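Follow-up to my post from last week.
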Amino acid sequence: MSVAEGNADIMRLNGAEKHFGAANTDIVRLDGAEKHFGAVRALGGVDFHVGPGECVGLVGHNGAGKSTLMHMVAGTSVPDSGTIGVHGGIEDNYSVSRAQKLGIRCVFQELSLCPNLSVAENTRINHASLQGFGWRRKAAELIAGKLDEIFPGHGISPWDIVGDLSIGRRQMVEVARAFTVTQDRLDLVILDEPTSSLDSHTAGQLLAFMRRFVAGGKSCILISHVLGEVLRNADRIVVMRDGKVVVTDAATAFDRDRLVTAMGGAEAHRKIAAEAATAKSETNPLRVRARPSGQKDGAELVARAGEVIGLAGLAGHGQTDLLLAIFAAASRPRAGVEVTAPVALVAGDRQSDGIFPQWSISENIGIRSLARLRNGLLISPRREAELAQFWQKKIGIRTPDMNNNIFSLSGGNQQKALFARALGSDAQIVLMDDPMRGVDIGTKLEVYDLVREEARNGRTFLWYTTETEELDNCDHIYVFKNGRIVANLGRDELTEEKIIQSSFGDAA
Amino acid sequence: MTAASIDTTARNSAERGALARARLLRGLLPALSLALVLIAIAWLNPRAISYFGFSLMLNLAIPIALATIAQMFVIAGNELDLSIGTFVGFVGCVTATWLRDAPLVGVLILLGSIGVYALLGALIQLRNLPSIVVTLGMSFVWQGLAILVLPKPGGKAPDWLLSIMALKPPFVPFPIIAALLIGLIVHFGLMRTSYGVILRGSGGNPAALGRAGWSLVKTKIVLFSLAGLFGVLSGMALIGITTSADANIGNGYTLLAIAGVILGGGEFVGGRVSPIGAVIGALTLALAASPLLTFMHIPPDWQVAANGAILIIVLAARVLISRRER
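User reply:
Got it. Predicted complex:
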């Protein structure tokens, strides 16, 4: 079924190519772009174009090749074969500075600000013409003006050191900087997961600005895992899978289901929910009993073996603090927290709290299990490799060699490695600190399955998530507000309204 | 909804206020440690706090400050120069021989040595070599060259250099004026100019800089050339004070320069450096090095250890402040 639909879409793609304007009006056009990283084919012959005044949505799983494709459009990466044309002319020596001159900018997924510099100084880095007497004032005015335009009420001073700003504000600076104009023209801005670190208010501001920008005849490429965002804001949607474009069509021709099917994930989301409903006994041994430090009444979190416990509520209302308290209590007793089994934590901010950047994938997985990997005083490379191989198969980490550096993986696969680290350990309790942020739906579904399977085998999961859909996988949900548990919902009582009600309600 | 967002805004601004305070405190730390050392000296020997006393105590502060600035440029690019000490010694030997006897040859040699620094920067960037290894090797090269130029201690500084270093301006001792000038000039160049931003950015996030179209090879060459230039100035200033040279004269400067940068608020990675802080750090070390400890009747054998203790205390204070920042 899905294969047939894929073929039909490829046929339509050819039709669409003819339909969407001649080559000379395109801002950027790639024909037959291919890219290999060692044995991994990241892109296999992709045709892609963006016309003036359109917003192209680009969706696909992590590792589908979206980022690689965007690096080519932005000039930071050169295709192994295929051609790039900009404004109708073929570019032979395409580079970042050439892209900049031709009016193509990119907001990269990994933040590309210098944390040691101020906001104004970071603006200067992208504008060679900001120099000479008074450049600091000019740079400050430029970025402050653009921030005011896109994010009114942003509360960022041009003299703030970027390292002092919260991740959301850094993202705002990064986005605003991409839209600043000095000498060079600006025709196309690539937004790679621009809303992943923004709250819904600022994300809305950004998307509204993007629509205004496109209405002014400029173009955008929007990459997002929030499919609703793409469906609502893009004019045309390009779906990628396994390094290829599988569907291109007007956004109005898509709905959520068709997008998910085209991306090739989502085999029966309902199945999980049904499985989750399996009966749980109240007699399983107690694993965690914890009361948040700010809790005034007697409410406490209780988790038993084999349970998946959800921690819900608005972001930053004490969920992470409680997880960290539980984690600390595993090694040193703490008042108000009772933990009866080894604990592992899957961090939410994988770049700063999860990954050892200099290490290989195997080493990153093995670090939680060193005691078992030991051979005498030393770590046995053989056992480490076995552990890594096992989890590579089990969790599906896409890499030719587990000895590669962890950064050779795409974001979703890095997160899988962190799950493998926790699940491969002796921990009976796994704490998850909103680990699925910015991970594609396919990876998510695989991890959900794994969590259910491990829970059936008796493991306990404490799962903080900001995505209400994920709570479907939980047996029991605690809603947090201002560092306290304000609601305690069983599986059958769980509805989105109820969670929102408790999160915003006047709980004393 | 709005209540929640106002709530978070207030929390953020309070957080940032705390961050700014911690940053200010950390920025003041070098000055505080210098003040503490000065107070200790004034308490031990009030007469040392005078024009003559400062001229004497800060005698070697200028070459140390210049070597510290040289090291700071290298550290700004996330590298480390282990050869700056022997390089200063080599420059000293050339200054005391060639620069006096055949000025043109001397100048060419010194310019050439700056060129070598530029090449090292390019090599380290292009071949992705660890700078510690490269400069450790170079430290033996400079040492060997210094011995070739001046096999046994001797030589004499050029007269013009002697007269510059012997300047006695009214009211404020020369080393203090020189330190102020060095600090302000480098501060302007690195912290205020538009290219200085690029140089510091190359330490903060090299990948981002490359993506914005800047050449990382060029930034590294510029940083290493500046290190070479200030190393040359340091060696010349040193010989202007000591009047004659010795191939081992600068050996202690490598670690002193690193300590000065760190004491002055710099960090080994991330492009976080402060020229004024570095100069203050160098002054602190120069002051603490001998006079203070001699006043305190600490035998010379223990002076190095005492110097280290000062460093550890200041760095510990900084860690405490940074931890509160989190």
